[in-house]
Every structure is written in C-alpha cells, then in structure tokens.
Automatic annotation (TrEMBL):
The chain crosses the membrane at residues 28-53, 65-83. It comes from Shinella zoogloeoides (Crabtreella saccharophila). This is DUF2628 domain-containing protein. The lineage of its organism: Bacteria, Pseudomonadati, Pseudomonadota, Alphaproteobacteria, Hyphomicrobiales. Residues 118-142 are annotated as: Disordered. It holds the Pfam family DUF2628. InterPro entries: DUF2628 (IPR024399). Residues 128-137 have a biased composition (Polar residues). Keywords: Membrane, Transmembrane, Transmembrane helix.
Length: 156
C-alpha cells in the first residue's frame, strides 16, 4: 500500500474537484532522470539545484583522484530526488497556499480517489482544529525543544 496526500487549492472547500492527489513513495523515474522528473512536476528551483549538483559531480568524476566522489555526488542527488521528490512537490504546493486535506492509504490512485470521494461529502465546508496530543492535556509543564524537534510545544 502507498500513501496518497490530497491537497486542495487555496480558498477551496473539503472535497473540491480541483484537489490534487500526490503519491508519496519512491520514484524509479526520479532515480534515473532526476532533473527531468523535477521539471515535469514543476519544481523549478529544485531542478536547477539538482542539475548544478549533478554537473559538479560529473566535472569532479573526470578527476583521477576524486572520480568516485563525483560519481557518489551524482548518485546521492538522484537518490535524494527519488526518495524526497514527492515531498518537494507537496512543499511547493503548500508554499503556494494549498493545504493537505487528507492522507489516504491505498493500493493505487483510482482507489485513493474513490476513498476520498466517498469520505468527503460535497458542498460541506469543514474546518480543521489544531491537533492536540493527550500529553498536552494532562501536563501543564513546558517542554524544551529536544532531539531536533524545534518548536514542539505539545509535549511528549
């Protein structure tokens, strides 16, 4: 099963027809053609950065001493885009005002669309409240940021 993120455009209501579904998984095409994959998904800045890093890696790969480092840089860039590419697309949409409406686990995109259409009644506007963790309700103690969780205010 794969996870599908459903994003709705700014100002749209839950269950909007313009919702965009992004599959959050490893992409083989992005592994072999990272720059083209990023351009296809309109991640312009990420595509330019990936192109620059891979061009640098190709230039370094010609050097007799640092050849493996250049190859590793190209491979690392491809692997990063293959693993984090869908997250880059979602982050780009969120910067433009889109919001994540649902996360659906399904075998394929058609099933995810069916689940989203059946679980969201059309025309009904719903607002989401902030998520409150059980630990925040029981403890009044303020927790300091720890282990990279900068700004984690809900507690443990």
């Amino acid at each position: 099963m794969a996870a599908f993120l459903v994003l709705i455009p700014p100002g749209a209501r839950k269950g909007d027809e313009k919702a965009r579904i992004v599959r959050d998984r490893f992409s083989w095409l992005a592994l072999f053609l990272p720059v083209i994959w990023l351009l296809w998904h309109r991640a312009w800045l990420a595509a330019a950065l990936a192109f620059a890093v891979q061009a640098l890696g190709s230039a370094v790969a010609d050097h007799p001493v640092f050849g493996l480092a250049g190859l590793g840089l190209c491979l690392a860039t491809s692997l990063l885009v293959a693993l984090e590419g869908p997250s880059m697309v979602v982050a780009g949409l969120e910067r433009r005002g889109w919001t994540v409406d649902a996360v659906i686990s399904a075998d394929d995109r058609a099933t995810a669309e069916d689940i989203y259409d059946t679980e969201t009644p059309a025309g009904e506007a719903q607002t989401r409240e902030s998520v409150s963790l059980p630990a925040s309700e029981t403890s009044r103690r303020q927790h300091a940021p720890m282990l990279g969780l900068v700004g984690f205010k809900e507690g443990r």
